[in-house]
Amino acid sequence: MLKRNITIAYILAFSKNTWFWLGIWIFYYLRFTDYAGIGIIETILILTMTLAEIPTGAIADLFGKKKTLIIAFTLETVGAFIMATAPNFQMLALSVFVMCVGGAFYSGTIDALIFDTLKESGEEGTYDRKISNTNTLSLIAPAICSILGGFMYKINPTLPFYGNAFGYMIGLIASFFLIEPHIDSIKFSFRNFVSQTGQGLKELFKNLDIKKQTILLLSIGFFVVIASEMLDSFLGFEFGFSAEQLGILWSAVFIISALASQLTPFINRLFKGNLSIIFIGILIVITFLFSPWMGLIMGGLSLVFRSSLEAISGNLASIAINQNTDSKFRATTISTFNMIKNIPYVLSAYFIGSLSDKISAKTTAMYLGILLLGFILAQLIFSRKTLRDRQYKAT
Q1: What is the CATH T-level fold of the domain 4-394, as seen in this structure?
Q2: In the chain, what are the domain boundaries?
């Protein structure tokens, strides 16, 4: 019976990403505001997601993953309906806030649910394959829905958002059929909530090896968030894609990234430990470094390649954190990691946008690649020094 959680998790992953609005959202937003107003909404989005990550993760560990996912999809459904029926800018902003809180409840909880389900069934060794399948579905969903959303928008501008609300509603119904894993459960209290929230941070840095791994994952994660949330869109424009071509490109990006996600188990076994993370990080660096010299074709391929690497990177981060974290702190720890990973984007979004205006997004991408390479090399040097010190002490 418990194994049905995995099937339901696949349904939830698809439902969560039924973004029919993906290709047309900016046109819908411009019905209510201008670009400055959209900037305000994007700030609300990223701040809400970042600030809500840790407390919602703690709630998932204390209240249970099933209840938390029900809350998540309830908020997502309500928020999507508010957006579809929004009469003004204020209601549009409210809908974004509600959906972001729902997204924060979902983030980390779904990964923890899958891992706990497999652990209770004695199958945690298959987690890398299961999380790859989950992320593949979460990428296929927007690839399909974004194409349909364009036609829906022509019929009625609100239809893509009603479609999104319907997708969330399916996820809400499916959530009620989950079975709560009974691993390391803790009774909820305010004291436990406060303690749980702090424990998520401790789990990420509880010993030297895990601390090094966390810093490596965060170093790459910082740049992945900046690229996926903003820079890649700038680059698509600078590489010379038209609006129609960009719609096709992003659909292709999601489909190919979904397929690439399936390579995670292979890469995780081919390169043991942190080597798989470093390998993906170096490849991401390469896609950044050569941006200034790329045109339409090579630029488009670089965006597809980097997005595929980002999908694998996210899978590897989930595997590493789940394997090193106690079940009772798992959702909290994943949410803490996601929150920390988003902070540089919150702080640097305006700066990167301004820098892209002044020196171009292509050159900005090159500088980000140099910076990421520096982070990775510094950690490799530190790891080798630590290893030599340990060998010296052992002798």
Answers
A1: Growth Hormone; Chain: A; (1.20.1250)
A2: 4-394
